[in-house]
Each structure stands twice: as structure tokens, then as C-alpha cells.
Predict the 3D structure of the following.
Amino acid sequence: MLKAYRGELLHFLSDPAKGCQEESYQHFDDGLLIIKDGVVEQVGDASELVPTLDPSVEITHYESGLIMPGFIDTHVHYPQTEMIASYGEQLLEWLENYTFPFERQFEDFEHGKKVAEFFLTQLLAAGTTTALVFGTVHKESVEAFFTVAQQKKLRMICGKVLMDQNCPDYLSDTAQTGYDDSKALIEKWHDVDRLQYAITPRFAPTCSAEQLQKAGQLLAENPSVYLHTHLSENKDEIAWVKALFPDNDGYLDVYDQHKLLGRRSVFAHGVHLHDCECERLGETGSAIAFCPSSNLFLGSGLFNLKQAQKYDVNVGYGTDIGAGTTFSMLSTLNEGYKTQQLRADKLSPIQSFYLATLGGAVALDLEGTIGNFTKGAEADFIVLDYHATELMSHRMQHCRNLSEKLFILSMLGDERHVKATHIMGERVFATNTSTSTTTNYKN
């Protein structure tokens, strides 16, 4: 069954930072997205494609907005939803005073389902259609998350936290129980429908060498799963890692020596990396989740995007709820631009939107599956509204080109500017003011 969506349309074909920026994307002032059985069939100019459709095919026309692939969040904690915007700490104190007490509740499956339902609803309302998600140390937290995500037919990645030292007793597992629980979750959930599993050591300080070894064993036994953890977020954290692992050559080397780097390994933050560490990340195809909102909120520092690009490190955006203070990827792009300004670097809006869509897909090794409108890609897409607020509507009148419009969306936009969200071609969210017309005629 064919479906067609008409309107201004944008998607990326490659990284704008590599080669010609103008050739990295396709933009149609009046485009048509054709979907067959939940995946992309064709995309192009409406004037060329509409006449090729059978008259029975309904065309949904979104006006005064931008159709683009759904946002991809490469690092977020669903159990921290209820403690977002907790005041006044940096990373290590913030974990102890806020995060750990809230995560204790997720031993209750029903509590996890309730939070997962709210969390995923918020993501969809913000235009995010795929995320790489932390659970808690409790197996039940992942069971709950995948149960809800499966019902919503979402492409989501999640994992049980591994944490056997330097944490409260009520959040501690062991190297063996962590391995056993993760293995059982992989066997039950990985690659079921649109769900995938991530082996999830919280970060090096809370994992013994034995537990990291077991994580590496799991990864070797299940090469299609992900590895998801934190890296070099905070200077005190880095000093702690050095004290705990004195025989290793830096933070990244702790993971490297336990064979945790690879094409599906995603390291959140990477704010304070040495060139040799970026080089190693690039060599192994590993990715960094750039989380500007949380980096600013916790005072962690300013991610060096230029350094990562120099060494060909895959990078995607992460909201990092709940240290991050917004579900909105548009707001996250705002923060990302400002972090690079503070580094005296420029981050173009074209690059920002690439990182939030196809860049995220590349970081998650899902290029061709999600992230753009190439033939056969899953049809998860959103419609951004240029006129959701009077200020943006007024400012858009003075934009001369696509780059300016994208910049205004990223500077003034938030959840209010997501007009609609579609999963596998089906609309699952729309604002009360969302308007579209459906026709069967060709014009």
C-alpha cells in the first residue's frame, strides 16, 4: 500500500563536513515522499512524482513546514525523566544525591512501564524517533522499556546498567549476575521487531576489571549488539579513573583493553579527550554522543567537535536526560551551537541537522535503515512548523535560504515546532494546531 506526503522536504546523503556541503543533502521546496509498507519507496520533486502515482493514492500535504527524517538521540537515560533539572551539582555529586535514589525505583516493572510510557511520549512529541537509552541496574527496567517501545513499534536501543563497585548496595550487581542478566535480555529482545540491545557499563569507576572483562565477553559473543557507556565527561571523573586504573594509559584505554571499542560502541560526552584517544576512536569506528545540554548544566566542559572530525570519529547528538534539560533536539542544537561558539569554532546549521539525523544513524551503525529518505529506509519522519510561534513566524519572513531557515529553527525552536511525528509512515503524534490536507487528485 502506497502513501504519499507532500511539502518542503530535506534529508541528508552524507556528512557536510566531508566534501561539498551542497552535495551532502537533498532539499525540495515542493517535494513528495512516497512510502510503501512502512519504508521509503521514493523521494523527489512533487511536480515529477505526483503524475506517476495512481489516482487512488492519497497525498497528504503539509504546508508551511519542513518534512525531514526523525531526530536520533544517541544518549539518554529514561529512568532519569522524573529527576530532570535537579539543582546545583556537578557530575559525581549529582549522581550520588539525585540519580541513584531515583533509579532505585526501577526494580518495579510497573513503575518502569509507567515512566517508559511518559518518556517515549515526550520523545515523539519532540520529534525524536530513535534513541540509545540507558536503563538501570535492574533487569526489570529494560523489560519495561522494551515492552512499551515494542507496543509503539519504535526503533529503540536499550540496555541494563552494569555496576558492581563505588555505588549504593541497592544498585549493585556482580560481574556474573550482570553478564547473566544481560545475556538473557539479549536473547529475549535483541533484533526483535525494531528493538536492539546495548551492553551498558555505567562508566569505568563503577565497574570492576572483572565486570568490564565480562562486558567484553558479551560483546564478543554477540557482535551485533551495542556497547553504551560514558567517557571523559568531567575532570574529577577522569582523575578518579586514573586512580582506580593506574596501569592503563588513560580513560579510553580502560575500555580498549577490555575490548569494548568497535563499530557499535557509543561513548557519551568525550569532553576532555586527547588526540591519541580520538585517533583510536576513529580507527575502531567508535562513536561519541555529543550532549551539550548536560555538559553545560553540570559544568562539565565544551565538547571539541573539530577534534573529533579531524580524526574521523562518528558523532551524534544526545539529550542526556536527566542531566540534559530538554527532550527537544531543536533546543539541543541550540546548546550545541553555543558550545562551539565558546570554543571559537563555527557549527553550521547544515552540520547540526546532519548530526541530529543521518549523523546519528551513522553513529549507531544504522545508516540505510533510519536517518534519511533513501529507498528502503524505515519511514520515521517529522514535520517541523515554521509558524508555531509568532516570533519564529515573523523571523522566517526574513530568511533568504535553507541554511538561514535551519538556523532559526535551531535557535528559536523547541517541542512546539514539531507539527507531526510519523513512525513507519503512520502518524503517531500531531499538535492540536497541526493542519494538513489529503487529496487524491494530481496537480
